[in-house]
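TA notes, week 10

Several of you asked for a full example with nothing omitted. So below is the full record: structure tokens for the whole chain, then the designed sequence directly under it. When grading your own attempts, check the secondary structure regions first.
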């Protein structure tokens, strides 16, 4: 009897959808990982996916599948680890229902995640952001939409999915102007808006003229702007902005780079890292460390506060400058401080009393 097919179906319908209430993005990512694994297993075992058992998906086959992702499909180590996490979740669920395959499942769960190099994040400077915002042709409808979209992304740091899911009712331009979104992990958060962003969004909403439940950014056909469309718009306007700002040619700009740029602007303004984590909607406070590592100006300011190694040590300044005339200067790195203390002790001791008969002999008298 096939053990994988009913387990796989229950994993998606019962475990992910009902028990964990996983998001559609998580379910889609796990689905893609399982599809790739079943296709790979069919090629190596000769069995169609409907006949593959859990025992066929042993540790050597899973290891070969992970190598296939990296070397043949060209996936990064992060993608490889994401696929492995989905497999671990599936086999962890299978361990509860198929104890007869416990040995195979245990060896698969023992496959570790692969370490990878952590490069510095990419972000835009103020000049590059200004060039990007000036790139859309605001004499056209799509140009005004893209200008409002890019300005909102650079100022709020919303994720690409959060931007495309915004509705007209999520934007509040009255007192305490802000934008509300349901972010990653089903966390709702509000982000304040600057006066410049309020002005641009006010003009866009007047032109958009929709209902509160309608998408904020739409295509010409009135459908919501997709994530792929957002990436294409960012790439197009980056190429235009690179004509006036050549440094943009050296950077691969994406909606997530605009999110990094918003965080770096907050960090350069001296905002506390805990506030930045709340602003960006990070689950872990340690995530903000990637912005600190990428901020060279912050490190240069820290370096400027350190004294050069060849600088002389600081000099002691007594309260009364006149009393320190011709006195040795103390130093923490020599014995001069001891000489100084001895000199001060002799100075403070009273002079000996005058005794005229001392040293006078009878012959001399």
């Amino acid at each position: 009897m096939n053990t994988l097919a009913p387990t796989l179906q229950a994993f998606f319908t019962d475990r992910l959808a009902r028990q964990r209430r996983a998001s559609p993005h998580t379910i889609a990512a796990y689905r893609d990982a399982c599809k790739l694994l079943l296709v790979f297993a069919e090629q190596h075992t000769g069995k169609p996916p409907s006949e593959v058992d859990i025992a066929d998906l042993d540790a050597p086959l899973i290891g070969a599948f992970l190598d296939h992702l990296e070397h043949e499909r060209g996936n990064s180590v992060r993608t490889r680890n994401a696929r492995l996490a989905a497999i671990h979740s599936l086999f962890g669920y299978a361990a509860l229902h198929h104890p007869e395959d416990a040995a195979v499942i245990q060896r698969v769960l023992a496959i570790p995640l692969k370490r990878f190099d952590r490069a510095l994040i990419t972000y835009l400077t103020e000049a590059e952001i200004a060039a990007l915002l000036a790139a859309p042709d605001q004499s056209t409808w799509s140009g005004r939409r893209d200008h409002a979209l890019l300005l909102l992304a650079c100022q709020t740091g919303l994720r690409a999915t959060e931007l495309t899911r915004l509705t007209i009712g999520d934007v509040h331009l009255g007192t305490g102007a802000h934008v509300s979104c349901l972010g990653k992990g089903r966390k709702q958060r509000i982000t304040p808006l600057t006066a410049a962003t309020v002005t641009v969004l006010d003009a866009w909403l007047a032109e958009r003229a929709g209902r509160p439940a309608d998408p904020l950014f739409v295509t010409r056909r009135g459908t919501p702007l997709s994530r792929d469309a957002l990436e294409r718009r960012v790439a197009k306007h980056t190429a235009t902005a690179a004509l006036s700002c050549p440094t943009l040619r050296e950077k691969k700009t994406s909606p997530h780079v605009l999110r990094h740029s918003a965080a770096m602007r907050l960090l350069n303004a001296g905002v506390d890292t805990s506030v930045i984590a709340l602003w960006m909607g990070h689950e872990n406070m340690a995530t903000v460390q990637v912005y600190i590592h990428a901020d060279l100006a912050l490190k240069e300011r820290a370096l400027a506060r350190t004294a050069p190694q060849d600088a002389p040590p600081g000099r002691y300044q007594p309260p009364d400058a006149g009393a320190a005339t011709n006195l040795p200067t103390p130093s923490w790195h020599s014995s001069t401080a001891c000489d100084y203390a001895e000199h001060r002790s002799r100075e403070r001791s009273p002079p000996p009393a005058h005794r005229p008969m001392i040293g006078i002999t009878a012959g001399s008298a």
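The chain has two domains: 4-109, 126-302. Use that as a sanity check on your answer.
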